[in-house]
Hints:
The protein is of the alpha/beta class.
Amino acid sequence: MKFSKIGLALSGGGIRAAVFHLGVLQYMAEVGLFSRITSISSVSGASMCMGIIFAVNDNKWPSEEEFLKNVQPRVRKRMLRHNIQKAALLRLPFSPSKWHNRVGLLSKMLEEKWGIRGCLQDLPLSPFWEINCTTFETGNRFRFRRDYMGDQKIGYVQNPNLPISDMIAASAAFPVLIGPYVLKTQGLLFTKDKKGKLEEVSVSDSYTLWDGGVFDNLGLDALHKIGRGLDDSIDFLIVSNASAPVSRQNRGRPSKNARRLLDIATGQVDALRTRDLFSSVIKKEKGLYLKIGNTPESGDFSEKDAIFAMNYPTTLNSPSENDFNMIFRHGYENARFTLPGRKYTVHAPRP
């Protein structure tokens, strides 16, 4: 495979996804691929993973050596030591203002516990990191980057200077559980194009942003468009999918049923995107697709371990050290064995 500009599309999936993607990145660092990464698109748990990687490295993208010797061990330590979800729940009774702004509390915990600080302008020029949300008003993807933010139906703002922790919390703002991030537009100049060269557009006073996984849980839209192929900024795409399986479930409480319907819809969208990805990218050897729960026929990572990782709950709670190691290694083994000609056993979700 000959390529020089790698794009990473990293899925949502809470702490499960964050740890799985970390294992994938471990393998990529070992084989010297970090210097080829030019674009990163993340959703929800993946945004948390990228945020903590940048945080422990002073908001700079690490070299392979830096990642292996310093960054990955520090990320692991913070994830295991500081339980973001538990810390937020313990703080909630003493923060009445956060009852209707739980996403703000999540941002605060990311800042205090994981050390995710700074603004979008503190991020490096390369690789470009795109943090994805879903705009309630338009039903479209809202993206945050160092050079611009926006939604193609609303418009774009150049060089936004918003807190990184806020943007990650917005990307992980799962409906019902966390609640939306409200982006206030006062003082922001929106234009029709991403480079700010076209005319200014009129916008609402605020927009409601949800978890990016509602629109595209794979983070694919930034790097691969259905029917159009890869974005011009990359020549090879690695998709790391740690999404939860849509397993069998009986009808329950209204809130549980609403989440179930959302999971079904998200699963169908992911399936359509994946089919197009395989036909237009994977078969042409322009990309790789890593899926949690898949086990290579060679290697010593067992089917039982793969199924455990796949069915690990979608939560922001810190895993046990053993669970962390299991999910991390599954991501690593997926990356290690996802090469042309390799065959995989695809496991059905546990009922």
